[in-house]
Amino acid sequence: MNRIILVRHGEPDVHISEKIGGGEIPSFLETYNQAPLKSDSYPCEKLLDIVRHAIVCCSTLPRSVDSARRCGVSPDLIDPIFCESIPSHFQSNLIRLRPKSWLLMSRMLWLAGFSLHG
Predict the structure, then answer these.
(1) pTM here?
(2) Does residue 69 lie in a domain region?
(3) Which long-range contacts (CB under 8 A, 24 or more apart) does 95-100 make?
(4) What is the predicted pLDDT for the residue at 1?
(5) For site-directed labelling of 34, which of 1, 26, 85, 92 has its Cα 20 to 30 A away?
(6) Residue 96 is inside which H or E element, if any?
């Protein structure tokens, strides 16, 4: 039986609790996207068993490729099509929120049809 299994990458080594303005989202995402994995971020045994017999596809982000390598495999395909899109955001820095709060708000606004700067 053929299956497609989606696996989230390991945890990036980046500080995400500092509040940022909407206009700072692109630079925050650049830092986040280039961050390596945390040194203690390793896959579970079940995942290791699955990937040994799988075709592994990764985004071009370091955390994605590093996650595959930490599973003991070289990706069969590395392509930017697997990267997440930049979330919608405001250019103003008047409101400052934690990145996770911005992401949640951006996704809710996106579902309502808002796509500014995304």
Answers:
(1) 0.77
(2) yes
(3) 95/21, 95/22, 96/19, 96/20, 96/21, 97/19, 97/20, 98/16, 98/17, 98/18, 98/19, 98/20, 99/16, 99/20, 99/25, 99/28, 99/32, 100/16
(4) 66
(5) 92
(6) strand 96-97
Counted domains in the chain: 1
How far from the centroid of its chain's Cα atoms is residue 102's Cα? 15
Q: Which amino acid is at 14?
A: V
Could you tell me the residue range of the domain that residue 80 belongs to? 20-85
Single-letter amino acid code for the residue at 77: L
Q: Confirm whether 3 is domain-assigned.
A: no
41 within a domain of the structure (yes/no) = yes
pLDDT for 13-35, tens place per residue?
988 889 999 889 888 888 999 99
Query: What is the amino acid identity at position 97?
Result: L
pLDDT value at position 40?
A: 92
Q: Can you spell out the DSSP letters for 56-79?
A: -EE-SSHHHHHHHHHTT---SEE-
Dig out the tokens for 50 from the structure. 């699955």
In a domain, 57, yes or no: yes
Q: What is the mean pLDDT of residues 70-92?
A: 87
